[in-house]
Specification:
Layout: H1 2-5, E1 10-18, H2 25-36, E2 45-51, E3 56-66, E4 69-75
Parallel strand pairs: 1-2
Antiparallel strand pairs: 1-3, 3-4
Length: 85
């Protein structure tokens, strides 16, 4: 994520996770907060999209427009394309 952010702050992440993984949204949110601490994603939100099966895909990353512009967010879906499979 640091590489894709290229100096911009990550403000949000969306992941698609299959129901077979039995992910609990609260546990995912807490875990993400812990691992993001001190990184470009510190303070970012995470959205869980539950889908059938065993998919585990980083769907999108929302980034600030520029490293110096901490106020405005830019949808970073183009930076992280959805996995085709």
């Amino acid at each position: 994520m640091e590489r894709r952010a290229r100096g911009r702050r990550v403000t949000g992440v969306t992941v698609r996770i299959g129901s077979l993984h039995a992910v609990v949204e609260g546990a995912l949110t807490q875990s993400f907060e812990l691992v993001a601490r001190g990184s470009v994603a510190d303070g970012a939100g995470i959205e869980l999209v539950t889908v059938p099966g065993d998919e585990f895909t980083l769907q999108s990353i929302t980034l600030t427009r520029q490293a110096a512009d901490q106020g405005a967010a830019d949808q970073g879906a183009a930076d992280v394309p959805r996995h085709p499979g």
